[in-house]
Structures are given as C-alpha cells and as structure tokens.
Amino acid sequence: MTYLVDTHSHLNHDKFPDVSETLERAAAEGVEYVLVPGWDLPSSEKAVELAERFRGVYAAVGYHPHDASKADDSSLRQIADMSSHEKVVAIGEIGLDYHYNLSPPETQKRIFEAQIEIAKSVKLPVSIHNRESDQDLMEILDRQVRNEWVLPRRFDYQIRLQPRGVLHSFNSGYDMARRATGLGFYLGISGMITFGKSGESDLQKVVASIEPEFFLAETDAPYLAPVPHRGKTNEPAFVPHIVAKIAELQGLTAEDIGRITSYNAYKLFGIGEKPAPKIAYQIRDSLYLNLTLRCDADCIFCDRKGEAMVKGHNLHIEKEPTSEELIREIGDPKQFKEIVFCGYGEPTIRLEIVKKVARYVKENGGMTRLDTDGHGNIINHRDILPEVKGLIDAVSISLNSTDPAEYAKLMGTPNGKQWESMIEFAREAKDYIPRIYMSVVGVDGLDVESTKEFVEKKIGTEFRFRPLF
Fold first, then answer.
1. How many domains are there within the chain?
2. Does 148 share its domain with 51?
C-alpha cells in the first residue's frame, strides 16, 4: 500500500477556492484520498458536491458542536437523507466543544446524541470533535456504544472491536486514548503532533504509547498546519509530515505508518483498497515470514479468523507458501536485521519448512527468530528443540498468563497440558537457542510486574509486554 489518506480535511472551506489544484499537490505527495467533513447543512452539501466531482474525495455530513443551535428536526432529517449518498462514508464532524460554548452544552449533547442515532440507523461511523469535554463525551459514547455496538465479552476480557468512529484531531490524555480505543474508536492525529520539541508534548507522549493500529492521519485543513508549514494554510499535501512524526515517535518507518493509517481508513470508512495477502512482509528492518493461518490455539485477542492484519499487512493467505517461495522473498538475508518465522497461525505446525528456510538464512549470513506459542513439542509429538539448534537465533514465546486456568481461557486451549508444555519448552530452549523472550498481551487485569518477575526469576528468560489497546 503506497498511498496516503487525509481523513479530515475541510476542502469545503472558502480557504480552498481551487480544490483541483489542492488535490493535485496532494497527489504529488502520495495523498490519493481525502475525507471532507461538514460542520452544518450547507457545508455538508458542499462536501457531497466535492465528493461527486473528484474521484479521490469522500464526504462526511453533520453538525459541529459550534453549530448545534442551528440544527432542528428538519435539518437533521436532511443530514440523514444525505447519508445515503454512495460517497458519504461518515456522520461528522459532530461532538462537543466546551472551550468556546458557541452552542449551549445541553444543546450540544442533545444534537450529538441525535447524530449518533442517525449514524447507527444508517450504519456509518462517526467523526467526533472533542475539546475540553472528555467526561461528558465519554459518558455519551460509553452509553451509546457499549449497550448496542460493542461485541460481547468472553471470559471477562475485552476482545477485538469493530471500529465505530474516530476522535478527530485527538489532543487528550493517555487515559482518554485508552478508553476511546477500548470502545472501538480510532484517534485522528493531526499537525499538532509536530508542535514542540520532539517527544516532550503531552500529545507526543500519548502517541508514542498507543498501538499505531488505532491511528488515522489527518490535516484538519485549513487549520493546524504541521511543522515545517506552521502558520500557513494547511492542506492534504502536508499529511506526510504528520506520518513522519508518528513514525519517529513509534520507532517505525514512515512507510509503516502510511500503510497502517491507510488501511485503518479503509477499515473504518471504506476509503481506498484492502492490501493483497503477503507471505513475507517488512516491519522496521526485520522481514517476517507468514507461514500459516493454522494454529493449535484460539486466543481471544487474535484476529486470525477475521481480518488477519498486522501493521497494515494482510496475512490472510489462501495457500501456504513453499520453502522456495519464501527463500525468493528473502533474497539476501543480510539486508534484514532478522528473518522472523511467524504467521497468523503457529509456525511450528510447518516445522520442516522452518528448518529448511532457516538453514538457507544461516548459510547466507542472516539472523533468525521464531515466534511461537511454545506448543511445538505437542504439535510435532517430539522434542523439536535439538532440531533447530544452530538454525534459530532467538525465540519469542507467548506466555500470556502465569496461571494455567487463565491461560487455557485466553488461549482457547482447554487441555491443561499446553501450559506445562509451553513452560518446559521455554526452560529447555535456553540450552539450544541463544536468546529467549516470553511475551504477554495486555488484557484486562494483567499484573505486569508479577508476570515479569515470574518470567525472569522462575523461567530465566527475557520478558516482553505487548499492549492490547
């Protein structure tokens, strides 16, 4: 996926007298799609007109909280009617703004909820404006979303949610970010992310701490132009500056963030394209090999049976790759930090392929890692560790819980032997493989510190934590 998406740009503003030239500049910077939100009835109508005129433009319709006092039953019906247009992909820009209070707060809340009801009735996501209204906004979203939109819980752990909308131009704290993503909302990251010394602003700290799978890139043009264009009229062509700053804070590449945010725009709004499945994909400077979708576990936080996406890469392969296909994808293994054997399934199910490809990598000067649930001995009915000695340089094992019963619930493995086998696998692996990691996913109620102590002191391996949201 090589294009970018500006998911919030007011090209319906009079600051853009020639939208075609604006879009040409955007396309020259790789920004192929732009979502134009309305803020009242006339601006929503203009957003739809622009979407009809330009292939890469889509529209959102709605009343901004500043203009909530202008909304009545008739105008809201017109918003609902416009939402049926094929290029209207969201209800927005709606929400609350207690900084200016250009409309009374009670009116804002009433119109906000009325427009959420429209979104639910027409099955569209929402694009939400929030300024100094965190508490009321989240009370409304929690009531509206949890009761009707959120997938059920399983074993009291929050499973992956379908997206509901975006908190556009996000500028709240970490707790707000976690609450919003936990309800299935994306965070729209605008040019504000470039303001101030890198890594020091509150927003930058939040963005550095949240999984990028919850980010959308946006300009909020003509406002909030990013550095180095601060003070100018913002426009979609400036999206790459926002993407680059997110990448810097995340320790990823701009290509990674561009791909992730573009896929998020596709998933939420249907804008753009779903990427084709891959048998090999790069994240940072490592190459990951997607061996299989098969697995002996059924983790509640795994999307193997759903989208099967990782960092914007589609792993939903229809055919498992051969060793020859994987070796062709690798080429010279020294060009990568490491070659990682993984998949959205369990790679030790294809142990012979792992060994053959790993041998090629090692013979050609590369480094290897195996990402596994640690059930390889059960799967293959033998001790597999002696077979990978000298072929695998590191192993990452999904611990997920120090309690066998909880582990069985999380992993979908009712047979208690899996937990014991995984622990034995981790302990024995130290005799055959130079580096061992044990990782946990941040599900509700996890005691990270005690889990870390268990891994480091009782197993004697390195510990890694992966956030769920």
1. 2
2. yes
Confidence of residue 183 (pLDDT cuts 50, 70, 90): confident
Question: Is 275 part of any domain?
Answer: no
Give the pLDDT confidence score for residue 446 in this predicted structure.
Answer: 62
**pTM listed for this prediction:** 0.90
Give the integer Cα–Cα distance in Å for 134 and 214. 18
- The number of residues in the chain equals 469
- Residue that terminates a domain, selected from 216, 237, 269: 269
Domain with 163 in it: what CATH number? 3.20.20.140
Q: Look at residue 441 and tell me whether its pLDDT is greater than 90.
A: no
**1: pLDDT strictly greater than 90:** no
If asked whether residues 11 and 80 sit together in one domain, one would say: yes
Indicate whether 224 pLDDT > 90: yes
Q: Is residue 16 part of a domain?
A: yes
Domain residue limits at 395: 280-467
Tokens representing 222 are: 């003509």
Regarding whether 324 and 220 lie in a shared domain, the answer is no
Confirm whether 274 is domain-assigned. Answer: no
Which residue, among 315, 352, 358, has the nearest Cα to 333 in the 3D structure? 358
Q: Which of 269, 289, 311 is the last residue of a domain?
A: 269
Among candidate residues 345, 286, 280, the one with its CA nearest the CA of residue 314: 280
* Mean pLDDT of all residues in 348-362: 98
Same domain, 34 and 81: yes
What is the 3-state secondary structure of the chain? CCCEEECCECCCCCCCCCHHHHHHHHHHCCEEEEEEECCCHHHHHHHHHHHHHCCCEEEEECCCHHHHHHCCHHHHHHHHHHCCCCCEEEEEEEEEECCCCCCCHHHHHHHHHHHHHHHHHHCCCEEEEEECCHHHHHHHHHHHHHHHCCCCCECCECCCCCCCEEECCCCCCHHHHHHHHHCCEEEEECHHHHCCCCCCCHHHHHHHHCCHHHEEECCCECCCCCCCCCCCCCCHHHHHHHHHHHHHHHCCCHHHHHHHHHHHHHHHHCCCCCCCECCEEEECCEEEEECCCCCCCCCCCCCCCCCCEECCEECCCCCCCCHHHHHHHHCCHHHCCCEEEECCCCHHHHHHHHHHHHHHHHHCCCCEEEEECCCHHHHHCCCCHHHHCCCCCEEEEECCCCCHHHHHHHHCCCCCHHHHHHHHHHHHHCCCCCEEEEEEEECCCCCHHHHHHHHHHHHCCEEEEEECC
Q: Give the domain CATH number at 412.
A: 3.20.20.70
